[in-house]
Design a protein that fits this description.
Blueprint lengths: L2 H9 L1 H17 L1 H10 L8 H31 L4 H8 L6 H12 L7 H10 L4 H13 L2 H11 L1 H24 L8 H4 L15 H36 L2 H8 L6 H9 L6 H13 L4 H13 L2 H7 L5 H25 L1
Helix pairs in contact: 1-2, 1-12, 3-4, 4-9, 4-12, 6-8, 6-10, 8-10, 9-10, 9-15, 10-18, 12-15, 14-16, 15-16, 16-18
Length: 345
């Protein structure tokens, strides 16, 4: 931020938020006509494959970046209430069942991703949080995060966003509860299991609205600064699908009639390394080309919740059998989600 903007946010943060929201909304409403004008200035036919792909890219790139920036800023302010210490304090000492529900719900509003998995996992174990409850949080935090929900809402409307929210929470809660019931604490790495337990407390600090605005800007620099290459890559792939992939091909490959489409979507999604911001433009293009909703949701969930890099990171604290159990339980939940919604919708 410039020095002027920083002084403004410190002196009158409420006015700053109002003006910023109005400017954001005005720019957002101009994206469709701006993308059409931009394509019209190029030497390509609008109804050609290339013209269609370019319009998708020119529209979706600023749209996704604006949605992401706005949501990350707001959630950065909200997340100033949910530090790792406070999250551990909220979950420590709670029993399974309702604690799984609470952990999965906290995962929505906490800014943790797969790169935070190891330190969070260690902190939860030291705080005495049950293993199954910890897994409910670790599944929910990357999969049902505010970025995914906001982008789904902006691109597909509240029904799809609410559907994804309900499905993601269900998978996180049930998978964590099952892992807890299996009593697999013996399959933590020895150095993690033998760590001394720590008492957990949280002391609230006085935080002003100006401080929370600064936290919002810090979140934008941290999160958007990291994920924008994945966003551009995802939108480029989505533009290619939108412009060149025939609808009949995608419908046969990921449609309701192909029973194997859901397992294949999960298998394709697991090795991918991206996040909600990068995968949602691909999801948008797949649905537009005739892919079934359940299949696409299964693909998206597997990319975000079961990425291979996260498994590599978790190997530092979990033995192979526990990782395999985690993957198997979560993948089974995702498969059920895909099959049920392809059958119902």
């Amino acid at each position: 931020m410039t020095a002027l903007a920083m002084r403004w946010t410190q002196r009158n943060p409420t006015l700053f938020l109002i003006v910023a929201a109005l400017l954001w909304w005005g720019l957002y409403q101009s994206l469709i006509p701006a993308s059409e004008v931009l394509v019209a200035t190029l030497p390509v036919a609008r109804d050609s494959h290339l013209g269609s792909a370019l319009q998708f890219f020119f529209y979706d790139t600023p749209k996704v970046l604006m949605l992401l920036t706005g949501v990350v800023f707001v959630m950065g302010m909200v997340n100033s209430y949910f530090t790792p210490e406070r999250t551990r304090a909220l979950l420590a000492g709670r029993t399974e069942g309702m604690a799984n529900v609470m952990a999965a719900t906290l995962g929505i509003v906490t800014p943790f991703c797969s790169c935070s998995a190891v330190p969070l996992f260690i902190g939860f174990v030291q705080a005495g949080v049950p293993l199954g409850v910890t897994f409910s949080f670790l599944i929910s935090a990357p999969m049902v995060n505010e970025v995914a929900l906001a982008l789904l809402f902006g691109m597909f409307g509240w029904k799809i966003a609410a559907l994804y929210l309900g499905l993601g929470l269900t998978v996180a809660i049930v998978a964590g509860w099952i892992i807890g019931r299996l009593k697999m604490e013996a399959y933590l790495e020895d150095w993690v299991r033998d760590m001394p337990k720590m008492s957990v407390g949280y002391e609230a600090a006085e935080t002003t609205l100006a401080d929370r605005v600064q936290a919002g800007f810090a979140s934008v620099r941290e999160i958007v600064g990291k994920v924008w290459p994945y966003i551009l890559a995802g939108i480029a792939i989505g533009a290619g699908i939108h412009g060149w992939v025939p609808e009949d091909f995608m419908a046969s490959f990921m449609g309701k009639d192909a029973w194997w489409s859901v397992p294949l979507a999960v298998l394709i999604g697991v090795p991918m390394y991206t996040n909600a911001a990068g995968v949602i433009p691909i999801v948008q293009a797949l649905l537009a080309k005739g892919a079934a909703l359940g299949t696409v949701l299964a693909f998206m969930m597997s990319v975000i919740a079961l990425s291979l890099p996260e498994m590599v990171i978790l190997r530092k604290v979990l033995k192979i059998r526990l990782i395999a159990t985690f993957v198997g339980v979560v993948a089974s939940g995702i498969l059920i989600v895909g099959f049920v919604f392809n059958w119902v919708l």
